[in-house]
Amino acid sequence: MTSRERFLNACQCAPLKRPPVWVMRQAGRYLPEYRELKAKHGFLKMVKTPELALEVTLQPLKRFQLDAAILFSDILVIPEALGQGYRFRDEGGIAMDYRLDSRSQIEALGSASLVPEKLSYVSEALKLLKKEINGKHALLGFGGSPWTLATYMVEGGSSDEFNRIKTLFYSDRSTFELLLERLSDALITYFKMQIEAGADALQIFDSWGGIIAGNDYEEASLKWIRKIIDALPKDFPIILYAKGTNPQVVAQAKNGVRVLSVDWTADLKKTHTLANEARGKLPPIAVQGNLDPVLLNTTPEIVTHATKRLLESMQGTPGHIFNLGHGIMPEAKLENMQALVETVVNFT
Ligand code: CP3
After folding, report:
1. Probe ligand 1: pick from 22, 25, 40, 337, max atoms within 8 Å of CB?
2. pTM higher than 0.85, yes or no?
3. Which of 87, 199, 207, 316 is deepest in the core (most CB within 10 A)?
4. 106 near 178, Cβ under 8 Å?
5. CA nearest ligand 1 atom 22, residue
6. What is the DSSP letter of 210?
7. Residue 76: burial class (beta carbons within 10 Å; 0-12, 13-18, 19+)
8. Among the atoms of ligand 1, which is closest to the Cα of residue 38?
9. Cross-strand partners of 260
10. Cα angle at 14 between 12 and 19, to 5 degrees?
11. For ligand 1, what atom is nearest to the CA of residue 327?
């Protein structure tokens, strides 16, 4: 069985001896070869140059026996394509070039029709990857959720309190909806483009889904995600990653996503049971996750132990993709990543 087949089988909840494994942000700052390439070119140039994006995407696959390659890119390429650029703050975090302050600024954003041309470097990179990977590994595309993108656009960058986006949601719903509508349309075009370019699955990152009140999650985030999923081909595997939304599992499972990717606070087995009970007539749903990324900053012994414990808790439960509960940290040690992947690959 190829890694690609293993991955797609797991999305379909087919029984497997061991789950497929990949790690969010697997091409990132913990890799010396990534840091070296970034020192030479800078992050945005790597994202926008298909040959460099190809090289970075493949870096972790050369070191570790991973089953999936995730395109090296960023969720913020969508606001940039619509006219709101971004950069990295020296002290860490993101700064958008300006912040959305008024309805007229939202009306002035570019429309979905700009996406194919402005983000042609994403299709180019995916096509190069498809050729290079040649069906051996699963090729993952991705994008942010409308809500998570809106937080960056309205806050003007990374935020601690999310005061501005929540105030907009609570006090001017029609302007909020105008923005989320625009983003959903752009994302539908973007995801269709990634599917056409050869992605085997797509992951939607609702990284900030957990900052809104549980009772408002549907209106702030989930309904826009559903709008996107409903516009994509019915059987195409979509993974929904959301952080801090464990109480929303039942609501999240009641739509066309094939995989729920959960953070480390969730019990993965219980999440799997709960999500599948909620499915009704929909096909079974797989879960992805969910080790705490901080474990990879410790020792190989600790990582091996935690990895085995998670594997054992999911043994005999079809529909598990092994991953962390969020992105790997820059402090992660290579020998710990090695220990994680080896433990999964050798699990019987
Ligand atoms: O998973 C992968 O390896 C694919 C590549 C990927 C990146 N960003 C590369 C990246 C993916 C899937 C993302 C998604 C992303 N980007 C999200 C959602 C996922 C999540 O982690 O919650 C968000 C919120 C962003 C926006 C963003 N980009 C942030 C908050 C940061 C970190 C800023 C900081 O100073 O810590 C980035 C930068 C970024 N995106 C890096 C990488 C490898 C690090 C850039 C660097 O090398 O300095």
Report:
1. 25
2. yes
3. 199
4. yes
5. 207
6. G
7. buried
8. 47
9. 240, 287
10. 95
11. 21
